[in-house]
Amino acid sequence: MSSDTLSDVLRAVRLTGAVFIDVNVTAPWATFAPQSRHLIPLIMPDAQHLVSYHLITEGECYAVQKGHDPVKLQAGDMIVFPHGDHHTLATDPSLRAPASFDMADVDLSTQRPWKISGGGGSDSRVKLVCGFLGCDVRPFNPLLAALPVQIHCRGDNTDSDARLSHFYRMAVAESYGQRIGGESILAKLSELLFIELVRMYLESLPTEQTGWLAGLRDRHVGHALSLMHAQPARDWTLETLSSEVGLSRSALADRFTDFVGMPPMQYLAKWRMQIASGLLTQGRSNIAKIAVDVGYESEAAFSRAFKKVVGMPPAAWRKSRQTSAEAGA
Fold first, then answer.
1. Average pLDDT over every residue of 98-123
2. Domain boundaries, the chain
3. pLDDT-derived band of residue 3, with 50, 70 and 90 as boundaries?
4. Could you tell me the CA-to-CA distances from 43 to 14, 30, 83, 189, 329 in Å, in that order?
5. Residue 165 CA, distance from chain mean position
6. Is the distance from CB of 307 to CB of 299 less than 8 angstroms?
7. Nearest Cα to Cα of residue 125 among 27, 31, 22, 23
8. Hey, CA dihedral for 183, 28, 36, 13, is it positive or negative?
């Protein structure tokens, strides 16, 4: 498996952590969490997408998502909704939640993490750290596309406890401590928790599993991905790539497509556009230089390729992202 490839993607899609809500409630209690895209204007206006997660720090509750069995969550458990789908959190899976999550329940003027308290007033208490991770989905985020609608990490799992326990303890301490700099610490911890969860999910995949993540650990597909990520501007052809990987062109094309869902050269084109979009967003290089940096001999050729993948010219993309960032600020 190429861990560098995963790191490349995490950097390129601008993974940004932000823990925002500290929940301390008593049973009976239920809340409806809408699709995370509805929360983007409120908590991270310049993000293209929000991954939502919940870290249970005390007690137990259920996560209920339409079309799926309720998931019982206990202290130490973490559940992630990579695609930001709506779901319900409740002390009893049969409880009916309010129609929508009400940000009026959160005092936005206070230091993060923001607080929510209340519930039914029983002796049964539940404490959660609810967070969001911002990332790009356009032009190309192969990681997000490879993840399921929900990932449940059990705190009583020996492997997960060993790897996540340090992050978990720090997150709990920062959430309740309200120390100076705690917001930044929580943001970075949420990124680390997510990355570790992705690695654990990858390691749990069955050997026959396909997909981009499974491709990372395949000897030949993982090598091909690593090469293209390490040298995206190189004049790759299927022939040169297959020669370095040690397979015939047809064998590599078939194997790569089986795992990743597209041929190697199509993947390379999309990956180049993701790199280019980041350079355009940063606004530090002119388009001609960006074209060379991602493997195109001319600005015109790059602009055509970018528009084909993204749906708009590079200059329009840069302007749209700058406008979005200004709105967020």
1. 66
2. 3-204, 218-328
3. very low
4. 16, 22, 17, 18, 11
5. 21
6. no
7. 27
8. positive
- Cα separation, 223 vs 121, in Å, equals 56
Average pLDDT over residues 199-203: 88
208 Cβ partners below 8 Å, 6+ apart? none
Q: Which fold has domain 218-328?
A: Arc Repressor Mutant, subunit A (1.10.10)
- Please state, in angstroms and rounded to a whole number, the distance separating the CA atoms of residues 18 and 187: 4
Q: Quick one: CA torsion of 5, 13, 37, 260, rounded to 10 degrees?
A: -40
Within 8 A by CB and 6+ apart from 94, the residues are: none
Tokens 């992202």 -> residue: 321
- Res. 178: pLDDT tops 90: no
Number of C-beta neighbours around residue 307 at 10 A? 15
More confident residue, 97 or 262: 262
Dihedral angle of Cα 38, 138, 210, 9, to the nearest 10 degrees: -110
- CA–CA gap between residue 294 and residue 296 (Å, rounded): 6
Residue 132 contacts residue 51 (beta carbons within 8 Å) = yes
Nearest-CA neighbor of 14 among 281, 198, 228, 309?
281
3-204: CATH number = 2.60.120.10
E strand segments, the chain: 16-26, 30-33, 49-58, 60-64, 71-74, 78-81, 87-90, 114-119, 125-135, 151-153
- Distance, in Å, from the CA atom of 291 to the CA atom of 301, rounded to the nearest integer, reads 8
Long-range interactions of 190-193: CB distance < 8 A, separation 24+: 190/17, 190/18, 190/19, 190/53, 190/131, 190/132, 190/133, 191/15, 191/16, 191/17, 191/133, 192/167, 193/53, 193/55, 193/78, 193/164, 193/167, 193/168
- Cβ contact 126:97 at 8 Å: no
